[in-house]
Amino acid sequence: MTIHRRTFLGVAGLSAVALAGKSTIGALAKAGEEAAPAAGAATRWAMVIDPQRCLRKEGCKDCIGACDKVHNVPLFKDKDHEVKWIWKEPFENAFTGEENPYTAEALKDKPVLVFCNHCDNPPCVRVCPTKATWKREDGIVMMDWHRCIGCRYCMAACPYGSRSFNWLDPRPRIPALDPEFPTRTKGVVEKCTFCEERLAKGEQPACVEACPEKALVFGNLDDPASEVRSLLREHFTIRRKPELGTQPEIYYIV
Amino acid sequence: MRDRGLIFTGLVLFLGLITFPVWYNLASGTSSKPPELKLPTTEKQCVAPTETMRMSHMEMLITWRDQVVRQNDRTYVAADGKRYDMSLTNTCLKCHDNKAEFCDKCHDYAGVKPYCWDCHIDPKLVQRSKG
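^ inputs. structure came back:
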C-alpha cells in the first residue's frame, strides 16, 4: 500500500489537532479539580452584634478594655490624639443612613459598639499607596504596620472612622504593656484586625470572649451551620451605611 | 642633608600621631575583641546553625515578618523538622532572654540600629517596670 502525499499530510494534520485538543482538555479538567476543594473550605469572618444585649449591663466596657489590653492600644486623654479599635457611639451617629426621625426608645441615643467593619469592598484598601492594608482571603481587612507610611489616605477613605493615627509616640501612653503584641510608633495608622493573631491560635476575638452578655458573636459566614449564619436567619439585622456599597461585615440585630 | 635628623624625627612623630587610634585601641583591648555575648542557658539548639544565624538572622527575621503578617503563615520548620512559632518576642526572646547582653551588645559593636524595638517589646523591660 502506498500513501499519497495528500493523505499523509491530512492524517498528520488531524493527529496534531487531536493531540492539542487532548492536552487542552486535560489542563482544563485539572484546573477544575484544583479549584473545587478551595471553594468548599472557604472562610469569611464576620460578627453579629446584639445592641439590646450589649445594653443590659449598663456602662460595661469589658470588650473595649480587653481589646485595648491585648493590643497595647494607647490611652490619650486629648480627643485629637485618641486611638480607638473598638468604642461606643450613639445609635443615631453610628447609623446615619437610618434617617428615621422616630428611632425606637430602646435604641434612641443609646451607645452602640462600633469598630472596623472588615468590608467586603474596603475603600481603605483601594487608596493605600503602599499595600500596608489589604483584604485577606478570609475577609479580614489586615494591616501591615511595617509598611504603613502614615499618609492617612485610608482614614479619609473609611466612612466609619474606624482608623486612628498615632500623632504622638504611643508607648508612654499604654497603661500596661503586653510583650506578646507589638506597639505601634508615631506616624502609623492602626485599627481593629479582628484579632487575627488570636484566630491563628484558634481563639475567639478578645472582645467576643470578654463580653459578659454574649452580645458579640463571631463566626464564618461561608459556613451555613455557623452561629452567625443562624443569627442572621432568625433576626432582622442592619449594617452601617450600606448605601455606600462597602459591604460591611458587622451585622446589628434590631 | 644637614636636616636629615629633623626630617626623620618629624616623620616618626607624624606616623605615630596618625596611627595613634590603632595603638590606643590595641593597648586598651576594646575594639580588637569581638563582644562577648550572653548565650541562653535553657536551650542548646537555635532554629538554625550558629553560623547561619550569625550571618543572616536579619534576613530570616524579615522573611518571618512577611510570612506572618502578609501570608498568615506562622510556623517555621527547622532543618531538623522541629516546628517553631515565627515570632521575635515570643520565640527568639524566649531563649535569648537577655536582649541587652545579646542583641544590643553585638548591634552596638557593629554599629547597626535595627528599628525592631520601636514596636516589638523586650519582655524584660515590662517586668522591670512592673517590679
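Chain B is about 55% helix and 5% strand. The beta strands of chain B are 75-77, 83-85.
thumbs up if we can close this ticket
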